[in-house]
Design goal:
Order of helices and strands: HHEEEHEHEHEHHEEHHHEHEEEEHH
Number of strands: 13
Largest sheet: 11 strands, mixed
CATH class of one domain: Alpha Beta
Helix content: 25-40%
Radius of gyration: 22 Å
CATH architecture of one domain: 3-Layer(aba) Sandwich
Number of helices: 13
Distance between the termini: 41 Å
Length: 446
């Protein structure tokens, strides 16, 4: 099953600034070698670990492990709408939480960042301790409506400054366990909703976050997820009927995977029929991905968990300051994409909760290249359904020393567990095995 439909380039490639400075003034943004590789190779992390079967159908990949393989005999039930949806935006490269949500009350922040600090007067939504980067302006309506929370000093319980290792631990969310699945895959397995494919990854490859026994669909672009050859997504077409007959009685993982893939494309068709909205308002590659997610969710085909990547956050050099640069560009795309996404969803937004994650934060002190190096604690944003807006933190304070990190005082799983418990029927113990979590009070029950 193949198609000649061209696939969109990897979403995490940094977008070219609209008005770039001359080359001598603003070198090409570059992260560390591992940070540059992590975006391009993230889909390889699970290939040899989880096994299972992945079937390419047009521009979509359906991954289906033996543990959940469908029995022979093709059945195409109507998809059941999801009662709630969790969307995870992964900020690949380790985003600097101290720039996104600025601890303006800390003198050490300004002392440690003479060229990159954001002045207090420029901050948005500021209280006595924190304020948002000015490029977060598109999200201020959500903030004022009490539907945006920022949780500071979050991260892995033990510092890990390797992009690959930290990402793997972050997405497994079960350190030390023999569990070989991502926490979003465990979520849809434990949730009460059931559809052919409940977990969706938009981007290039399948992240560990959604890998596991539950079937997962991955595509780079919604409209590329179709069979070649006419109206092949129509289950009544001759081509579809022939494929259905061919695979209806095939056993094993491959048979189950192909049957799931064929059924999934039928289920996905209503989403492809949803006309893209707010096309000009969605900024950059993250915006394009979230626009596809909005179409899927408005079609109400049973998808309950989604992961989307936004890359190029590994800002070791020339991250820029309040007047412009790499950080401003990234934060603008992040905020504009999320804001447009919730507007686009319309009434469907009432069941969608979005959360951001990143491998780790950055050092308090900027380096000699006007960037920041790998740190520990960072910030997580939570927006949408069930959120009690505000700043949340067990704030540890900052030190302005060369090797000083923002300490982690809130395990990132505490944030995720509170979202999962408030918005789904799954238990936190099933999704985050071995972790005893404590509530921050940032979510209302569904």
């Amino acid at each position: 099953m193949s198609t000649s439909t061209p696939r969109r380039t990897l979403r995490s490639v940094p977008a070219t600034p609209a008005d770039p400075a001359p080359a001598a003034e603003q070198p090409q943004p570059a992260g560390c070698d591992e940070g540059c590789r992590v975006t391009n190779r993230r889909s390889l992390l699970r290939g040899a670990i989880l096994g299972g079967t992945s079937v390419m159908v047009g521009g979509a990949s359906i991954t289906y492990s033996g543990a959940a393989a469908a029995a022979p005999g093709l059945v195409t039930p109507a998809p059941r709408p999801a009662s709630s949806v969790i969307v995870v935006v992964s900020m690949r490269g380790a985003a600097d939480g101290l720039s996104i949500v600025v601890p303006h009350a800390e003198l050490a922040y300004y002392a440690g960042r003479p060229t990159t600090a954001i002045p207090k007067a420029s901050l948005l939504g500021a209280d006595a301790q924190f304020g948002f980067h000015p490029a977060m302006a598109p999200l201020m309506p959500l903030w004022k409506a009490g539907r945006l929370a920022a949780v500071h000093a979050t991260g892995l319980p033990v510092a890990n400054r390797s992009h690959f290792a930290a990402m793997e631990e972050l997405e497994d969310a079960a350190p030390g366990s023999e569990t070989r699945s991502g926490w979003l895959n465990r979520l849809v397995g434990a949730n009460g909703d059931h559809a052919t494919v409940e977990a969706l990854a938009v981007g290039n490859g399948l992240p560990a976050l959604v890998s596991g026994p539950q079937p997962t669909m991955s595509f780079d672009e919604l409209d590329s997820a179709e069979l070649a050859g006419g109206n092949a997504r129509d289950n009544r077409s001759p081509r579809r009927k022939a494929l259905n007959r061919l695979w209806a009685t095939q056993g094993g993982e491959m048979g189950g995977s192909v049957r799931t893939a064929l059924t999934s494309l039928v289920d996905l068709a209503p989403a492809q029929d949803v006309r893209p909205a707010y096309r000009s308002a969605y900024p950059g590659q993250l915006g394009g991905a979230l626009q596809d997610v909005a179409r899927v969710l408005k079609a109400d085909i049973g998808v309950a968990a989604v992961t989307v990547d936004t890359g190029s956050w590994d800002m070791h050099v020339n991250m820029g300051g309040p007047g412009g640069g790499w950080m401003v560009d990234n934060v603008s795309e992040l905020a504009g994409s999320i804001a447009t996404f919730f507007t686009d969803l319309g009434p469907v937004a009432d069941k969608v909760t979005l959360v951001t994650i990143t491998e780790f934060g950055r050092r308090v002190q900027e380096n000699g290249s006007r960037g920041t190096d790998h740190g520990w604690g960072g910030v997580m944003l939570v927006a949408g359904a069930g959120v009690k807006g505000g700043y949340y933190s067990r704030w540890p304070g900052l030190e302005n020393t060369l090797d000083a990190d923002l300490a982690v005082t809130t395990d990132y799983r505490d944030v995720l567990a509170e979202v999962v418990t408030a918005r789904t029927s799954a238990s936190a113990a099933a999704v985050f095995p071995g972790h005893s979590w404590s509530s921050l009070g940032m979510m209302r029950a569904a």
